[in-house]
Design goal:
The complex is a heterodimer of chains A (557) and B (454). With 557 residues, chain A is an alpha/beta fold. Chain A folds into three domains: 212 residues, Nitrogenase molybdenum iron protein domain (Rossmann fold, 3-Layer(aba) Sandwich), CATH 3.40.50.1980; 144 residues, Rossmann fold (3-Layer(aba) Sandwich), CATH 3.40.50.1980; 168 residues, Nitrogenase molybdenum iron protein domain (Rossmann fold, 3-Layer(aba) Sandwich), CATH 3.40.50. Helix content of chain A is 44%, strand content 12%. Chain A has a six-stranded mixed sheet, with helices on both faces. In chain A, strands 3-2-4-5 form a four-stranded parallel sheet, sandwiched between helices. Chain A has a four-stranded parallel sheet with strand order 7-6-8-9, sandwiched between helices. In chain A, helix 21 links the parallel strand 15 and strand 16. Chain B folds into three domains: 122 residues, Nitrogenase molybdenum iron protein domain (Rossmann fold); 115 residues, Nitrogenase molybdenum iron protein domain (Rossmann fold, 3-Layer(aba) Sandwich), CATH 3.40.50; 159 residues, Rossmann fold (3-Layer(aba) Sandwich), CATH 3.40.50.1980. Helices cover 45% and strands 13% of the residues of chain B. In chain B, helix 13 links the parallel strand 10 and strand 11. In chain B, helix 11 crosses helix 13. Classes of the chains: A alpha/beta (557), B alpha/beta (454). At the A-B interface, helix 4, helix 5, strand 3, helix 6 and helix 7 of A face strand 1, helix 2, strand 3, helix 3 and helix 4 of B.
Chain lengths: 557, 454
């Protein structure tokens, strides 16, 4: 279908001038409007990208509490645990222990996709939202009884393989011990049942919930099934949530390359895959923020190394595939990967050549996630667009500045409240997949292991890197730059569009996607063209607003 | 009321209700230059924003007092005060609407006391009106938060100025922005001054901005709310609300403003009652425009009844909406075989009997406090022709392969939830046409011939 296309736009006139704007001044103007205390704090989150030395970029403050009364994009610990990490697995009964709101609001709103036909029992509970629907009497007299009954009931009706329970804010306060209840019910029913202490007030954002979820998976699920599957190059894909069907494309790509996917955490995923994931040789990390804990713990306990990869954009996909092939160092895989890349690239290059002239030089801004705001920059680059401002909702400093800053990150009270597991080598199952020297050196065949350089090195100096951006800062930025597109989530969407600027959701992809690997990249290029060059933006001004002289003349007459 | 359920479920699967702070936030978004503030974890405000935004397709700012682990131990007073201060500095609002959450309620924060302190500390400065409402999510549903916030606002702000009263207060219940606009038109055409609370007809369904708006334009002004005590009368919609301590009844008690408790005006019967009441209060006849609208509606009933009579409908949503819809369906010969709600007032069946004279003989089921699994179980046995309610019933519609007519809140899988007109003769007309056409389309699609003339 030929996209609706407009002729010129207001911001096109402006894009030529954006380089004349002084970012420092913009920052100063924004900060001046805050009360001094808030300004001091926000100033550390609002950074103009600058390389300080060979290794370091300007320090950014991240993963600290949002100031009360400042409207933030962030969610809570429960949201990260239940909604993000545990939600996209089809055959777990995810039971929210709390009043109805939390369960309801996290009811399949991320548009995660799944294909139940690939697990023998065909279970899929993702379209359900289970809650103990705590009421006043439970707040007063305790909710453990109701929780037990709910677990029993879920078991009786669905006969699931696993039930997990999520604590909401009031649970800890009224003294409910979800862990003793789940232990008791696990014993009684003989299936995996465990709880997450992911009360909403814990930690500073959903990031805390990711960590809690990682810990739970690691303690209760990973390692339950030792069956070693057939196949070469066995990998787990971590931090891929199959939004818009991304994981399906990645699965297909792996298959064509001859790479065997054991488990994805957590997209198109199953408990069966999780239980068996410790039999893989290598962990591949997409979303560094939400799931690097599991990768680290699996390395310590089972000896599985991890690599950071990225399957968003054609360039990143090829780079990642080559990295995997190089890591294994097997000529068969190296050749196969090159063949697949060669098969895919013509369609990609054709699309780029078509779209690029229509989008070249336009500005993008993106404030989303804990990795997405980095990953999508490459997609924009491939169609000639410039990401002038980016930032995360819930990332930590290492996601911005790179993992080398990890030892320098101050651990505050909020982070201390989230348990760090003490992981030891498993006496039986520990099996270093590569040479001990390579593991220690964190390098194999020239490929850096456990390495993530963060977002900043991929951005230009003078670009904006803003952590936990507020509504007000967003408004000011788009007012100043009139970007061609702004990417964030549903909460920001309509505020941006009120200004006549198209807004792409990168959490749930609106109704679009997939955008991963080669086919997804092509999809994304066309999507951006359709959005940015849509004719609807032409109608914003009425004819009488477009030529005020004319109206004035009528008024005069 | 639990006894009404088919099966005694312990857990709630796929709830047919949302939590009370959502309703309160919606109300505060319908007051001019107002900022809702949820006293609890930031997740509450984020989740609720997301849900409201996805329905209205509009920006919805809701601030939070951002509880930490320490706050839950030592109390949320300090955080609430900081939040209020920051909102004032950033947004310069005329009203801050504070709603509690399960967290602040469980730890027992005394919000009115904290805010009283705050006002004292900042004496001398021009501060915004602060309204607080208790909305623990473990008690009631979103509609209770909605009515609670309306009542708390009126209680805090409305006064009696001893001036000659002429305007009418209207408490419209949780309707769509389009409904609210239509109500305003009706009052305008009657030549009756009115004050509507809340009024999110513009704040949650407005045009593009030519410049940055800290708080979207529109909404009931604080000044208008203050003058609600001087009104000639109040009208409140909702037969369930009629049984509860409401803003309308509060004004009656405090300032002797007469209160008309009516059903939500969906269908001819309930709309007639409303127009009658307006006519009585204002002493003016029903404007010709609406006489015509009513006439066209009855004409359509006559023309279309052959398509719809004896059709079977499953109706779900907030109890008052369910009663309004069921009343309308019943008057056109559709049998609302199942009337269900996640709400649990204890009055649903009685009220349905009031609007559906043949409720018992038709064997209509009324279910309170149920979730979508209960509704689905019941629906499967009742072989309905269609479902009518929010988009969250889609899973059932899909399972039983029957059409879902989307009304009310939330509508997350279609455009234009904010622009659905449910009320008045005009709204009824639209519903009637939609329902008739869905039934006709089902017949058409099911036919092997493929008639183009139905």
């Amino acid at each position: 279908m030929e996209p609706m296309r407009k002729e010129t736009t207001e911001y096109e006139e402006k894009t030529d001038n954006w380089k004349d704007i002084d970012p420092k001044k913009v920052k100063q103007e924004i900060m001046e409007k805050y009360p001094p205390k808030v300004a001091r704090k926000r100033s550390k989150h609002f950074v103009i990208n600058k390389k300080v030395d060979d290794e370091n970029y300007t320090e950014i403050q991240a993963n600290v509490r949002t100031i009360p009364g400042i409207i933030s994009q962030r969610g809570c610990c429960y949201a990260g645990c239940k909604g993000v990490v545990m939600g996209p697995t089809r055959d777990i009964i995810n039971l929210t222990h709390g009043p109805i709101g939390c369960g309801f609001y996290s009811w399949l709103t991320r548009r995660n996709q799944t294909d139940p036909s690939t697990t023998p029992d065909g279970h899929n509970f993702m379209t359900y939202c289970f809650s103990t629907d705590m009421e006043e009497r439970e707040i007063i007299f305790g909710g453990e009884k109701k929780l037990k009954a709910a677990i029993q009931e879920a078991y009786d009706i669905f006969k699931p393989k696993m039930i997990s329970v999520f604590a909401t804010c009031p649970v800890g306060l009224i003294g409910d011990d979800i862990h003793s209840v789940t232990r008791e019910m696990e014993k009684k029913l003989g299936i995996t049942i465990f709880g997450f202490s992911c009360e909403g007030y814990k930690g500073v954002s959903q990031s805390a919930g990711h960590h809690v979820a990682n810990n739970g998976l690691f303690q209760h699920v990973i390692g339950l099934d030792d069956t070693v599957k057939e196949g070469d190059y066995k990998v787990n894909l971590l931090g891929e949530y199959n939004i818009g069907g991304d994981a399906f494309l990645i699965e297909d790509l792996f298959e064509r390359c001859g790479i065997t996917l054991i488990s994805t955490f957590s997209g198109n995923s199953s408990v069966d895959h999780f239980s068996n994931s410790h039999t893989a040789d290598l962990n591949l990390i997409m979303c560094h923020r939400s799931i690097n804990y599991v990768a680290d713990m699996m390395e310590q306990k089972y000896g599985i190394p991890w690599l950071k990869i990225n399957f968003l954009s054609a360039e990143a996909t090829s780079r990642s595939l080559r990295k995997i092939a190089e890591y294994y160092g097997d000529q068969k895989l190296i050749d196969r990967v090159e063949e697949v890349i060669a098969e895919e690239m013509p369609a990609v290059e054709k699309a780029q050549a078509e779209i690029r002239p229509r989008l070249e030089g336009k500005l993008a801004m993106m404030f989303v996630g804990g990795s997405r705001a980095h990953h999508y920059q490459e997609l924009f680059k491939e169609i000639g667009m410039i990401t002038i401002a980016a930032g995360y909702e819930f990332a930590h400093r290492d996601d911005y500045e790179g993992r080398h800053v990890l030892p320098k990150i101050k651990v505050d009270a909020d982070s201390r409240n989230i348990e760090e597991l003490d992981v030891q080598k498993d006496p039986e199952k520990y099996n270093p997949r590569i040479d001990k020297k390579e593991l220690e050196a964190e390098e194999r065949h020239g490929v850096r292991l456990k390495d993530y350089e963060g977002m900043m090195p991929d951005m230009e100096e003078g670009d904006y890197v803003i952590d936990d951006i507020s509504q007000y800062e967003t408004e000011k930025l788009i007012e100043t730059y009139k970007p061609a597109i702004f990417c964030a989530g549903i909460k920001e969407k309509y505020m941006i569009q009120k200004h006549g600027i198209p807004m792409k959701q990168l959490h749930s992809y609106d109704t679009g996607g997939p955008y991963a690997v080669y086919k997804g990249a092509v999809n994304f290029y066309y999507e951006m063209d359709r959005m940015i060059n849509s004719k609807v933006w032409d109608h914003i001004k009425a004819p009488w607003e477009k030529s005020p002289e004319l109206s004035a003349m009528y008024a005069y007459e | 009321m639990k006894a009404q359920k088919n099966i005694e479920y312990k857990a709630t699967s796929n709830a047919c209700k949302l939590c009370s702070p959502l309703g309160a936030s919606l109300v505060f978004r319908g007051i001019e230059k107002s900022m809702p503030l949820l006293h609890g974890s930031q997740g509450c405000s984020t989740y609720i924003r997301r849900y409201l935004i996805s329905h209205f397709n509009e920006p919805v700012d809701i601030a939070s007092s951002n509880f930490t682990e320490e706050t839950t131990i030592f109390g949320g007073g300090a955080n609430l005060k900081i939040a209020v201060q920051n909102i004032i500095k950033q947004y310069d609002p005329e009203l801050i609407g504070v709603a509690t959450t399960c967290l602040s309620e469980t730890i027992g924060d005394d919000v009115p006391l904290i805010l009283r302190d705050y006002n004292k500390n900042d004496s001398g400065k021009l501060s915004p009106a602060i309204v607080s409402v208790s909305t623990p999510s473990y008690s009631g549903t979103h509609i209770d938060g909605f009515h609670g916030a309306v009542k708390a606002t009126v209680d805090t702000i409305a006064e009696k100025g001893n001036i000659e009263a002429k305007h009418v207060n209207i408490f419209p219940n949780m309707l769509s922005p389009e409904d609210l606009r239509h109500l305003k038109d009706i009052f305008f055409d009657f030549g009756a001054e009115h004050i509507m609370l809340p009024d999110y007809s513009q704040t949650l369904d407005g045009p593009l901005w030519s410049e940055y708006q800290k708080i979207p334009e529109g909404g009931t002004t604080v000044k208008q709310i203050a003058s609600m005590g001087d009104a000639a009368a109040s009208i409140e919609f909702g037969r369930i609300l009629a049984e509860e301590e409401s803003a309308g009844k509060l004004l009656k008690k405090k300032f002797q403003v007469p209160c008309y408790s009516l059903g939500i005006p969906i269908g001819v019967n309930e709309t007639d009652v409303f127009f009658n009441a307006l006519s009585t209060i204002t002493g003016k006849p029903v404007p010709e425009k609406y006489v015509q609208e009513r006439g066209r509606l009855i004409d359509a009933y006559a023309d279309g009844h052959k398509y719809v009579f004896e059709a079977r409908a499953v109706v779900y949503g907030e109890e008052d909406l369910v009663i309004g819809l069921a009343s309308f369906l019943s008057e056109i010969g559709i049998v609302p075989v199942l009337c269900a709600s996640g709400g649990e007032s204890g009055h649903l069946k009685n009220k349905l009997c009031q609007v559906i004279p043949d409720f018992e003989t038709r064997g209509i089921e009324a279910l309170e406090g149920v979730d979508f699994v209960d509704i689905g179980d019941a629906a499967k046995k009742l072989s309905p022709d269609f479902l009518i309610g929010s988009s969250k019933g889609y899973k059932i519609a899909r399972e039983i392969n029957k059409p879902l007519i989307r009304v009310g809140f939330p509508i997350h899988d279609r455009m234009g939830g904010a622009r659905i007109l449910h009320i008045g003769y005009k709204g009824t007309q639209q519903l009637f046409d939609t329902i008739s056409n869905i039934i006709i389309a089902s017949k058409q699609d099911a036919s092997s011939v493929g008639y183009t003339y139905m």
